[in-house]
Amino acid sequence: MQRADTRHRVHARVDDDVRTTKDTGLGHLPSKQWQVNKACCAAVTIAVDLTAWMRLYALTSALAKAEPKTLRYQIFQTPARLVQARRYRGLRLPRTWPWATDLATAIEIIRRMPMPAT
Predict the structure, then answer these.
(1) pTM score, two decimals?
(2) Residue 32, Cα to own-chain centre: how many angstroms?
């Protein structure tokens, strides 16, 4: 019983990853040419990986378990303005955006991460 449950959970997780990848863009290939679709698959794979890492490390609220469609609407399509003041670049988030606090928290978490050693 335990083995069957474990096998099912792994399979369900793989199914979730496939569904997420299709929702991110792999479900609609742009061309009939192999090379164009190959480049599209690479871009989708990078997007899925970045989304997964962002969910894992930067998002803290219910957005940490959100689907790609929700993340696109609430986080990635935020109407922000890129500003520069005193040698500092940042985003000016609209105060009326309902998820501005979540995005600001995620940006601050990413900013405080240590830089990788080269």
Answers:
(1) 0.74
(2) 27
